[in-house]
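Aim 2, interim progress. The first record below pairs a target sequence with its structure tokens.
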Amino acid sequence: MRPDPGSFRDPDSRVVHGPDGRIFRELSARGAEDFAAFAASSLFGDPRVIGTRQAGEALLEHDRVPFVSYPYEWPFGMLKAAALLQLDLLDAALDQRLSLKDATPYNVQFEGARPVFIDVGSFERLRPDEPWVGYRQFCALFLYPLMLTAYRGVSFQPWLRGSLEGIEPADAAALLPRRRGVTVNARLLARLERRHRETSARATTSQLARAGFKPEIIRANVRKLRKIIHQLEWDVPRTAWTDYKADREKLAFVTAAAERVGPALAWDLGANDGTFAKAIAPHAGTVVAMDADHATVEQLYRSLDGGNVLPLVADLCDLSPARGWKLAERGTLTDRGRPGLTLSLALIHHLVITRNVPMAEVLGWLASLGGTHVIEFPHRDDPMVQRLISAKRSHDTRPEYDREPFESSLNEQFEVHQRLELGTRTAYEAVAK
């Protein structure tokens, strides 16, 4: 058994990796008692919670999530869905004399576009006269980031990537406009924290207990938060990529490759509106559709109705790094799984010309992923290529960007199986050497 490097903060419930990719959870005596209470409740077997079964004394086995993603990679709608799931489960838990000991989006994963709560160890027996201990964490990691995008039009991903603890109440109070939900959950909370900075958590809990803190108060707060979250909306701006249209020949070429490979995991890099991700989805276990444009990924998420396409906000020149304690709590993209099929369509010219990544570097990284690739190369006379080159300085004509050097580098890193000529573009099906 190998302990999961991102599961050590709860001593009563720790995730470990077993043979053949199986996922287990080791419980302390207290954790086992909490799980027994959860297993006796109507929440056990709820499809909103990861599939779990007893694997031994104080040992559980969980269903495996196809691909792990993080809140700083989710679009607005996914973070909102995860927040509502967290609140709905807490509300249901209170009916069973249970609570949740924390409120972090890292306890939620997505199977395609469907959120699933994965931290069964977060359920605990309700402690009389105690408040919901996860309230502040919920605000910092769910509520404030969503408000930042809904009220200010600012993407929350850099804020969550910058701090695994989320946005501090004092920072939220300074960033967000004066609105009812902000006043109570950010400004008032920030003021209380300043006033009680020297008061211990234990002393605060004791004060609440003496005041007769009841579960009904928790439920009322949870439902107020749910109403606030439900009403948060983001008016998605139009971008150049939201009007992307796919070529039928290219679509058939890509779909045929996916049908031949039948990958358990596929990546669509620069997924745009998700047309190709959706096309290959019937032939893959999971398709991770990545694009750097938040608005485009949000529109893709809104277009999904279940299924196995996981849309993520990801800039290939600034991918999610290793994070947390010993840089091991949160893994890099490739730490979390390697694709059997990778699509790189309408992508190469943006990386090489706009982002100044050498062609050989781009192809070298793609080859390092292994598996089969469908790579599209827009020729030098392609209108978009000409537009990108014209945006550079007059002396920077990018002579190295041409089909001959591209194919030379491609053949060094890949074995090309098929190609499709598409006017000013060529698509290649190739296998990494």
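The second target in this work package is listed in the same format:
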Amino acid sequence: MSAGMAGAVASVVVVTHNEGAMLKATVDSFLQDTGEPLDLVVVDDASTDGSTAFLNDADYSAIRLCRLEESVGISAARNTGGRMAATDHVVFSDAHVRVHPGWLEPILESLADPAVGEVGPCVGSLGGNAVPGYGFTWKEPSLKMAWLPNPEGTADVPFLCGCFVAMRKAVFDETGGFDEGMYRWGFEDSEISLRLWLRGYRVQVAPHARIDHRFRPHFPYQVDWSGVIYNGLRLGVVHLHPQGLEVLIRHYADRPAFSRAWARLIDSDTFDRRASETGHRREGAESFLDRMGIDALR
């Protein structure tokens, strides 16, 4: 362990792609407001804007930078950082967040329960007036996220926003982290939360941990919507029961990008992954959705 990691209580993996000045502000937030030593890892997913240059300064010498020559997307980039984690706890953060003082302790307290597989904070809006979210659920067959209200205390939730989630390193290693078969962006956070639930772990929000996230009106890269739909379909094929999958497919079937998304799905390892995940499952998706009061796929 390097000097920069000595005594660290958690590893924080920040994935960045052309984030500009937001990356430095995010890193500075972790350095200033945690109160505990961190093992900070920045995974640069093939940025072209020079936004990681500040990490060459002496003030940032303890931060480890992993620079990817080709963009691999959010899931694979997070997993790259997760495998580099040097502590027993790993936090995955977007590169456009601010943490509030005291954010780490409630998360570590929740993760101390071996039955808990994933924990997230209250997510506020950076520079906006959006109501804070405390995990989310699905309210429609598109699987679009619907924020949950403040539960006041640590509570189980169906899904956590991928902008900021924490796991024990042992759970990350056991489950393989984020699904690298997902294309670039979209539904990767729903997928890992659902997978953990179906494997017998609980997913929790720690409302006294608070971060603010920049919800952008546009992305610093082009979004391939056939890829986003593919990700939703992949989640459905791998995890959902037949009725739920039928509702999901029917919802997306008339979208212009559906045929490309379906072709991508057929050409992927999605059906093999379904067979593999079935062997790890302790609960079926239908039972989980009923227990959580989610009727979006009926």
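The CA atoms of residues 200 and 282 lie 6 Å apart. This observation will shape the mutagenesis plan for the next reporting period.
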